[in-house]
Amino acid sequence: MTLKRQKTEKKAKNDEGIMTVSGHLKELRNRIAVIVLVFVVAVVFFITIAPNLIVFFQDMGVRYGYEFVFIAPQELLMQQFRLAAICALVADSPVILYEIYGFMRPGLSKSENATLRIALLLGAFFFCIGILFAYFITLPFMLDFLIGLKNDQVLLGSIKASISIASYLDFLLLMFIIFGVMFEMPLLSVVLSRFGLLTPKIMTKIRPFAIILIFIVAAIVTPPDVVSQIMVAVPMILLFLLSTLLCRIFYKKKKAKEAAEEDGEEEDAEESE
User: Fold this and answer.
1) Which of 9, 180, 198, 221 is 20 to 30 A from 262 in CA distance terms?
2) Which residues pair with 269 in a beta bridge?
3) Which segment of 89-98, 102-111, 147-156 scores lowest on mean pLDDT?
């Protein structure tokens, strides 16, 4: 198998050892095929457990007094397929990122390769931390607040809380994605700083606009009360500040390394003279 792969790689390269355009296209096709295959397998797997996942998410709402309904004959079935597809995409995302990294790897330096490998491992970890933060801290408070509105007899009378299962799952998945992506912010700042694409000056300059944007996002995705908005906005602001600090640390390290390399080149040039 290894011998066959080596022969294929030789055919994809020219006499100078540089991969040809057709070789790049073939490699890209193979990597896309791997991504699609993993996604299809993941979809089949999650379809088998989708009913259990819906019950698992439903139980959290039931604890706070929610009653769930489906308002179209096909709604419950379609939600199972939709949930399976979203879960499969999340499960496939590390493979997608790895295949992108694998395609870019020949053009990266050793330090850049090491940075991206660590980022791939930590990225999945921080995404899971964000989902757990949403599930155990943010969502219980928000669900409790929202169901509590029905007790306001002056405003709502005796309206019964019967929630569409589709709307409920949309709400949960939105929170999971927001917090999962949000917890990637420090890691992203480190990677961009290592590549020289992000500087502390940029982070400091955009900080006022970022804080305003964070509060706007928090106001959109949370109930219309100050406490729940703060519960979403404060972790996002803290993560942004942490990202700024990490950016400053790793950017300084990058500059120090570049200065040391330049000094070394100058010394070599002087010695050669």
Assistant:
1) 198
2) none
3) 147-156
Comparing C-alpha atoms, which of 200, 202, 237, 244 is closest to residue 217? Answer: 237
Amino acid identity for residue 17 in this structure: G
Q: What are phi and psi of 112, to 5 degrees?
A: -70, -40
Do residues 243 and 189 touch, judged by C-beta distance below 8 A?
Answer: yes
Amino acid at 140: P
Rounded Cα distance between 184 and 116, Å, is 14
- For residue range 167-196, what is the model confidence (pLDDT) as tens digits? 999 889 988 988 898 898 888 888 888 777
Count helices and strands in the chain by DSSP H and E runs: 10, 2
For residue 9, how far is the Cα from the chain centroid? 33
C-alpha distance from residue 174 to each of 134, 199, 221 (Å) = 10, 30, 8
Half-sphere exposure for 141 (CA within 13 Å, toward CB): 16
64 DSSP assignment? T
- Bigger pLDDT: 23 vs 97: 97
Place of tokens 């096909």: 74
First to last CA, the chain: 51
Tell me what pLDDT residue 25 has. 84
Residues in the chain, total? 273
Q: Which residues contact 133 (CB under 8 A, 6 or more apart)?
A: 179, 183, 235
Q: To which residue do tokens 């990677």 refer? A: 191
Spell out the alpha helix ranges (H) of 108-225.
110-133, 139-148, 153-156, 165-182, 185-194, 200-221
Q: Which amino acid is at 234?
A: V
- Residue 64: is its pLDDT beyond 90? no
Classify burial at 60, counting beta carbons within 10 Å of its beta carbon; exposed 0-12, middle 13-18, buried 19 or more. Answer: middle
How much is the pTM? 0.77
